[in-house]
Write a structure and sequence with these properties.
Layout lengths: L1 H23 L15 E6 L6 E4 L4 E3 L2 E5 L8 E5 L5 E3 L4 E4 L3 E9 L6 E8 L5 E4 L3 E5 L3 E3 L2 E4 L8 E5 L5 E3 L4 E4 L3 E9 L6 E9 L37 E4 L3 E5 L3 E3 L2 E4 L9 E4 L5 E3 L4 E4 L3 E9 L4 E10 L1 E4 L2 H9 L4 E6 L4 E18 L3 E13 L4 E4 L2 E6 L4 E4 L4 E6 L9 E6 L2 E7 L3 E7 L7 E5 L4 E5 L3 E5 L3 E5 L7 E4 L7 E3 L3 E6 L4 E6 L8 E10 L10 E6 L13 E4 L5 E8 L1 E8 L6 E7 L6 E3 L3 E3 L10 E9 L10 E6 L10 E4 L5 E7 L2 E8 L11 E7 L4 E9 L8 E6 L11 E8 L7 E4 L5 E4 L2 E8 L8 E5 L6 E8 L12 E6 L2 E7 L22 E8 L4 E9 L2 E3 L2 E4 L11 E3 L5 E4 L6 E5 L2 E3 ...
Parallel strand pairs: 2-9, 11-18, 20-27, 28-29, 29-30, 30-31, 31-32, 31-33, 32-34, 33-35, 34-36, 35-37, 36-38, 37-39, 38-40, 39-41, 40-42, 41-43, 42-44, 43-45, 47-53, 47-54, 55-61, 65-75, 80-84, 86-89, 92-96
Antiparallel strand pairs: 1-4, 3-7, 5-8, 6-7, 8-9, 10-13, 12-16, 14-17, 15-16, 17-18, 19-22, 21-25, 23-26, 24-25, 26-27, 45-46, 47-50, 48-49, 48-51, 51-52, 55-58, 56-57, 56-59, 59-60, 62-67, 62-69, 63-64, 63-68, 65-66, 66-67, 68-71, 69-70, 71-72, 73-74, 76-81, 77-80, 78-79, 82-83, 83-84, 85-86, ...
Length: 1205
Amino acid sequence: MKKHSKLRRFGAIILAMAMVLTLITPSITSDAATSKTGKVTAVKVTNLPSGTLTLKKGKSKTLKVSVSTSNSKVSKKVIFKSSNTKVATVSSKGKITAKKNGTTKITVSSKVNAKKKTVITVKVGTPVTKVTLNKKNAKITQGKKLKLKATLTPKKASNKKVIWKSSNKKIAKVSSNGTVTAVKKGSATITATAADGSGKRASCKITVTAKSQKPATVNPTPVNPTPVNPTPVNPTPVAPTPVIANKLTLSDTAITIKKDEEKQLTASLEPSNVTDSSLTWSSSNTSVVQVSEAGMVRGLKKGTAVVTVRNTASGLSASCNVTIIYSAVVSSQEELDSALADGVNSLTLNISEDQDITIPSGSYSDVALSVNGNGGTITNNGNFDAIEITAPINYIENARNTLILTAPASIAISKNASASIMINLANAVKDDTVFVHNEGTISQLDIMSAGTIRLTNEKERTTPLPVNITSDNVKFVTDQPAAITANKKADLVFTGETEGTSISVDTAANTPDIFGVGYFDVISKDTDKKETISARPSAEVAKVTIIGNVQSATTDAALSDVTVTLIPEVDYKEGTTPETAVTISTDDDGDYSFSQVPGGNYYLVMTAEGYKPAIQLLSASSRYNSVYQNETMEMIPSDLEDNNTGSISGTILDASNKNAVAGLTIEIRKNKGNVLGDALQTVTANSDGSFKFDGLTGDQYTIHVIDNTDSSERYITKNMNVCLLPDDTLTNQTITVTKPIKGSGIRFVLSWGSEEDGVPSDLDSHLFGPSVNDPDGISEIFYGSKMYASGMTIFTILDVDETSYNGPETSTIVTPIDGMYYFYVYQYSENGSLTASKASVDVYSGGELLTTYNVPTSYTPDSTDTNAGDSTSSPYWWKVCSYDSRTNDITSLNELCTSVIINGKLIDTDGNGDNDAEHGYISAPTPSVSCDSDPAFQLSLSSPSINTDDYSAEFGTITNGKIALYSSTYDETDIWDHLTWDIAEGYTCAVSDDHKTLNIYDKKNVLWGIYNITVQKMITPVLDSTYDYEVNFEKKAITLNVYTSLSDENIYSLPFTVPDGSGYTCSVTNAGEDSDADADIDIYNGNGEIECTYKLYVYFQAISQINYTEPIEDYSINLDEIELYWEKSTIIADLDAATINNSLNISLYNPDLYSYTIERAKEENDDGELIDANYFFIKITEKESGNVVKRYIVYNYNNSDDDYL
C-alpha cells in the first residue's frame, strides 16, 4: 500500500507541473500546416496517376488536385509553379500549356504549408495517341502467369511507359512489366494506361479457373471404442452475434466502354466473415447502362450513368461512373451522316477509289476519326478530336483539325481553314510522298518518318511555317519560308520565297543538305554556333536563262571570245573546273547566254587573254525573272601597273527621301556579289552618310551595307558591285537603302551611273496602275504628278525625283488597287543612252529586297512588239516589270522600247504625262448644308487633304476637313434636327452620333473624307454704310474685317450695333496679347452673358473709289495692290506715270488729311543699275507731316496677250 501511495503522490506532482507549464508556456505551432483548427496532411494530383504528363506544343491540360486536411476548416488552396516556363507554363488554376519541346517540373504545394506538395514531370513532345494490348481476353489457371504486351502509338511517343492495374487483385494481380498472376477463381480486368497523362488505355479481361485437385487416399486405423456413461446436460440456448461489414470497396470508380461492350465490376466487404454479404446492384440510367445481379456492366447506348452497389445489412454503398462511347465503321455518305447524327465517339471511314465523301459542318470535338481505303476524295467541314489518315487518299480540310498521316496522301488546306499535321508513315522510305497544298493556315508540321513532303502555298505566309523533323531519310520541299527544327539529317529544297526561314539542328552532324537559291543560316543547338550554308542548284527549282555582257574596263568596248564559266557555288574551287561547270564564250558584241540552268547559287568566272580574271557570285532565280539580265562585267587589263592605292568613296542615301543615312556598317570584299567570309575593310557611314575605302588593288568588289544600329526599324541590307581600276579613285558611289515597306506596299528604287560614267543625267520613273474610278482606266505617277490618291487614301507616290545622275528615284505602291501595275523608266535627258546607263531597279516588299533588274545592254527592234518602235527610233523607254496586286506576282518584262502601250492602248511617248492616264488627287464632292428657320445661317468649309511632304510610306499625313456652322437661331444642342445635308450623286453624308464629324462615302461605302464639325451661335454686329467691312466665317472663329482710314487709337470707337429687337448688345474690347486680332467684339444676351465673340481686324484703306477713262477698261483693288486692265490696243511699253494719272480719278476717304501721287517703281538690272520697273506706286501721304502712310503697288495688265508686266 505504501508503494502505491508513493506512486500516486509522484503522479500528482507530475500532473501539477504539467498544468503549470501549460499555463506559462505560449502555444507553439510545429509548422505552418498546423493551425488552431487543424493542418494539411497531403497534396495529390488525381488525374495523373503516374506523376508525368506529355503535351504537344501548344496544347493544354488542367490538373485536378486533392488536398487532405485534418478537418474541414483548413484551407485547401494550392500554388502551382513551373521550373521552366519556356517549356511549359501553369496558371493559378492548374492549367498547363506546352510552349516548346523540353522537360519541366510542375510543383503543386499547399498555400498554408509549402512543405506539403507534389511534383509532376511535364514533357513537351509527342503524346501517346493509342494503346494496344496483344490480348483482349485470356483464361489462365489459378497459380499460373501470363505476360501481356502493350504497344504505344506513335512509335516516337516521348514517354513509352505504361501503368498496369488489376480491377481485382484478389482474382488476378499484375506486375509493373505486365505479368499477370492468377490468384483465385473469378474474373478481373487488367488495364494498361499510358503513363504520359494522355489517358489512352487498353484492357484485357482475365478469367481465372480453379486448378484441378486429385482426391486423397485414406487408410483407416481400427479403433476400439471405450464405453462412456454420459451425464445428462440441460443446455441454455445462446443467440449468435452478427458480423456487420465496415467497408465496401468497388474494383473501379470510373470506366469507359463501348456500346454493346461488357465490363465486370467486383465488390468486396470487410471484414471477410460478415454475416450478411448480400449485394444489390443498380444503374442510375438503365437506358444507357445495364448492370446484372453479379455486377456485369453492359453499355446500351452513348451516355453516362452511375452504377451503385449496396450492402443492406451495413448500409454501405459504393459507386462507379460509367461512360458509354459509340464506335462505328462506315463506308458511304449516308452511313457517315447517320453515325455523326447519332453522336458517334469513334468513327472509322472506309472510302474507295471512286468515292467522294463530304463530312458535314459541326463540332465533333469528342470524336476520333480514322480514314481507311484506297483513293477517293474526302472533303471535311467538321472539327474533330483528331483525324488519322491511314490510306493514300485525297483529303480537303475546310475546318480546324489535327491531322495524323500514317500513309502517303494528298492534303489540301482550304482558305480560312487550319491544321496541325503529323506525318508518321508506316514502313516508309524516302520516295513515299505526301503532298500538302496550303491556302489557309498550317500551325505545325511534324515529320516523324521517312518520306518526301512537298508543300505548296497559294498565298505568301507572313510568318515562317514551324516544321519539326525527327526521322532519317526525309526530303522536305517547300515554296514558302519555314522555321525548321531537326534532330536528324534531312534534304531541304526551297523552290520559292525564303525570307524569314530559320534552321536549327541538335548537332552539327545533322546539318541538312540545302537546295535552292540563296544562303541559309543553320544553328547547332549543342554549341549555339551559326553556319551559313550556300544552297545547291536543284532540278526541283525552276530553270532560268542567264544573259549578260562583257566589256573592257578601260575602253568600254565589247570583249569577244571571253571564256565564261558557270559553276555551282558549292563546287567552286579556285583554279579548277568541276564536272558540274558549264563553259561558253562571248560573241562579237560581248554577249553571253546560259540557257535554262537550274535556279541556284553560282560562281561566274570570266577569263580572257590580256585581262585579269573577273569573278562574280550570282544567285539566279526564275521567281521574278525567266530570263535573268546580269549586270555588265568590266574586265581589267592585266598589264596595268598596280600600286595598291585605289580608293572607293560614296554616300548612303535613304531611298524614300534622299536624306543621308549615318551609322550604317559598310563592308567591302573582293569579287562581285560576295557577301560571305571576312571583309577586307569595314567602315561606318559618317554623319553625312559618306564612306571611303583606301589602299585597294584594282579588282571587282562588293560593297555590303548592313544596319547594325539599335533602331527599332532597321534598313534592309543592300549590296553594290564595283569595278576598280588599279590606283584609280572612284567617287560619288551612291548606295540607296530603304526601311521595310509598310502594309502591302511595293517599292521600286531606280539607280544609275554617275557623271564620270558618261551616262544620261536624268532618268525618270513612271509607274502605271489601275484607276480607282474606271475599271478600264489607267493611273500614272511621275515627276509631273507625284501622287495618285483619292479621298483618304494614297494609292501610289513618287517619293524621290532625282534629276542629276546616280539616283535614287523612288516610286511606291502604298495602297494597291486590284489590277496590273507596270514600272517604266524614261530617258529624260538627251545625253548618253539607256543601254549604257548602268541603270538598275530594286523591288522591295515588306522587309525584303525581292529582286533587282538591270537595264538591257542592247536594243533590237522587234516588229511583233508594238512597244519596240523601229530601228531608226531611239529606245527612250525601259519596260522593267509588271506587278499583279491580286496575286502578288512580279513578272520581268525587261526590254527597251520607244513608247508605252498598255492593253493595246498608246499611253505615252515622250515621258511628259500628257496622256489619258489619271493623275493627282481625286477628291470627293464638297457637301452642302441648309438650316431651316434661320435665314442668317452661314457655313465655313475646308476640304480634307493629304500632305506627302512628311510621307510615312503608309498613309501620308491626312488632314480632316473642317465645317463650321454659324446660326443666329440655334446652338450646338438643338441645331441638328434643322439641318439638311446634300452631296453629289453617288456619294452619301453621315453625321456621327456625337455630332463631331461628317463622313463622306461613295456608292461602295468607301470612306472618301472626314470633316470635323463645329457650331457657333451668331449675332452679327453691323456698321453703317460709310464703312467698308465684311464678315468671314473661318473654322471656329468668326472674323469681321473693317477697312477704314481711322487711326489705331480710334478702333474702339467704331459704331457697331446689333439688329433691333434682338435683345442683344455689343461692345469692342481688347483682344488680349495672345490674339493676333486688333480687337474683340463681344455680343451680350439679355442676361449680360457673352453669347459669342467676333475677332476684329482693322485695315487701313485710304482709297474709297477709282474712276477711270480710256485706255483703262477696269480695275481691281485689295489692301496693298491695284490691278489696272488696259484695252487691247494699248502699247504697254509706252505707259508712264502721267498716262496712268490722266486716266485715273482717285477718291480718298479723308482728302483733308491725305493726298496721293503716282510714280514708276525702280529696280536693279544685272549690272546693279537702277532702271524703270514695269509697275508703279500710288503713294498716300499725310498732309500735315509729309509722311508716306500707305503705298499701293499698281500692276498693269493687258488683255491682248495675258501677260503681266
